Amino acid sequence: MTPSVEAVNRSFAERVSLNRQILAKRYWYLPVDDKGHENYQPVGRGVRSSEFCGVSRGFTVCKNVAGHEGKILNGVDCSGKVVVRHRHFWCHKPTCPVCFIRGWSVREARSIEGRFLAGKKRGFDKVEHITGSVAVADRELPESVFRKKCRDALKDRGVLGGCMVFHGYRIDEERQVLVWSPHYHVLGYVEGGFDRCRDCRHKREDCRSCSGLKGREVRGFANDGYLVKVHDVRKTVFGTAWYELNHATVRVGVKRFHCVTWWGNCGNRKFESVKLDIEVLCPVCSEEMVRSVYVGKRFIVRDIGVDGYLPVFADDEFDGVGVANYVDVVGGSGSG
């Protein structure tokens, strides 16, 4: 059952009690203060999908102690320690306040990464991170309408295709609230690549007659009011996709609303994602982590809504008498 508009307007205290991780980014907890767009809500503002959402299912551990020497994690020196990551049960609903960060966003980001991996195998060029902002005059149009107009603007500037992630809000820095400002974060391919513009040292006024994306943007913006901006070189497709997804916007009351859409040379009929083998890598040394059971005596906070919870932390490999605190699960690797 799709939650009502009232159901998604959860109190701040309730949301924190379900998932203290929302305190890490202002976008995740700032209130929405914009009349007339109540049917659109940032992800993670709905009701908890199930009593199992966020329930602990153990840990993954990296025991490459030598690789942790001198490294700092969450302000803790990892020297002589193992690195531990919590595993939880996650649902895959964007509205769930418990699972939207590490459940839905992670799964969708992996799917996006797999699709662009398929594009790489077909010889497509570098994937760029792009923002397409809706013209001020069109902000009150239905989302399906200004999405098409934004897609047309991207094509006009030379973006050949990719995925568009809908964002309805931006932070009003003065008032510290989220206000309606629809735009799309895009991962996609630029015709001829963007490096010619990225490495260009001409002044912006010199771009007007250029055939590169920036030149096409200057001319296009004057015509349609849609702003297309290519960002700095991304580090990973997965990381950028996860960032785009965890502060996306959904429409409340519509069962099949898609905040992620594919188009152009990456359209749904073009090709499918490559299925990825999931690896959980240590954030300190990048070695693969393995599923483990904690048998030590120290109390570890496992509830993501309780103060003191850390999704990843450094811990002693052995207790005071030399007994291992973490025992590997046979055949145990993977995420959660």
As residue ranges, the low-confidence spans are 1-5
Structural class from helices and strands? Answer: alpha+beta
Major sheet attributes: 5 strands, antiparallel
**What proportion of the residues form beta strands (DSSP E)?**
25-35%
Mean pLDDT: 89
Describe what this molecule looks like in 3D.
The chain is an alpha+beta fold. The protein has a domain of 180 residues. It contains eight helices and 14 strands. The strands form four sheets. The chain has a five-stranded antiparallel sheet with strand order 13-5-2-12-14, with no helix packed on it. The protein has a five-stranded antiparallel sheet with strand order 9-6-8-7-11, sandwiched between helices. A hairpin with a 4-residue loop joins strand 7 and strand 8. The longest helix is centred in the first third of the chain and has 22 residues. The N terminus is likely disordered.
Write the layout of secondary structure elements.
Elements: H1 5-8, H2 12-18, H3 26-29, E1 40-42, E2 56-62, E3 72-73, E4 76-77, E5 81-88, H4 100-121, E6 127-133, H5 143-157, E7 159-172, E8 177-190, H6 195-198, H7 213-224, E9 227-230, H8 237-245, E10 249-251, E11 260-264, E12 290-294, E13 312-316, E14 326-333
Antiparallel strand pairs: 1-10, 2-5, 2-12, 3-4, 5-13, 6-8, 6-9, 7-8, 7-11, 12-14
Helix pairs in contact: 4-8
